[in-house]
Amino acid sequence: MTDDASGTNVLFDLWLASRAATSVLDEALRPAGLTADEFAVYSVLVAAPLTPGELASWMAAPPTTVSSYVRRFEARGHVRRLPHPDDGRSYRVELTREGRRAHQRAGALFLPVLRDVEARLGRSTGAVRGALARTRTALDVVRPGGA
Amino acid sequence: MTDDASGTNVLFDLWLASRAATSVLDEALRPAGLTADEFAVYSVLVAAPLTPGELASWMAAPPTTVSSYVRRFEARGHVRRLPHPDDGRSYRVELTREGRRAHQRAGALFLPVLRDVEARLGRSTGAVRGALARTRTALDVVRPGGA
DNA sequence: TCTAGATACTACGAGATCGCATTACTTGGA
DNA sequence: TCCAAGTAATGCGATCTCGTAGTATCTAGA
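Predict the joint structure of the above. Result:
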């Protein structure tokens, strides 16, 4: 179950699927002015404000990348920095009303794609999600520092 | 099965898993001088020479990105351009001996990670791969132009 | 209380990604 | 045989990613 005849493997499959998703979503979301990655970050933030560090471990990105994101989103007026109550070195990143609106606009373009993919996956959607969650967990264990 | 209580979905899960994988592999492969993306491309090419266009649709990347890849890999001496027999506008990208060696060195660093992930996925590895393949297919259908 | 070491973030810069516009070749039709 | 339209790849440039090095703050121990 390791490598099949085609010489591929789980991680390669993951790479292909993810590239396909990013490519489709980048294009679908373009009219809303967000990339697939940005939309994902907005989606995390819409649930609750997070510190840059938390965001970094969530999305498995280096701190400097998150820093750039915050700067960019703030320049767009989509995000605001709230002082951190217990730690003066940090802060919390919160979506502004404008940011939430942008997320919603993008969401309207995202949903049809999601629905289409879900429809094609059919009742196996849940299984796929479970598989992805397990894969992520496996990877987080391999490299400490994950969520 | 669409969105669970956490407000996430299959595509979001895919994004998280893929980011985790890239992050782990970028670090693991660094001593070999390849990124996770580059390793994946080398892996495709090690099987057979491809045209830039074929490569682009395989990895769902824009042609200009593939162009940059080829230029970079060629500068490293890892890749060579073979004239295309039937089409003077194109060519085929082939891994050189040196490129194959680099791929092998990276492969030695990649394998332990893969084995670890597979071990943690256990007998569900095959199911996960199937799920990923179906997801990719679904996405390719959503946006024509896939493999 | 003071300080050494750890931790959170960022300035900066090198290099990567990818859209737009262009060049080069191929192909189908007159 | 020509040519108009279509297709493959690339030059260029704007923007993004992220490693290195550095600043600000926190924490534990003496």
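The helical segments of chain A are 10-29, 36-47, 52-59, 63-75, 97-121, 125-142.
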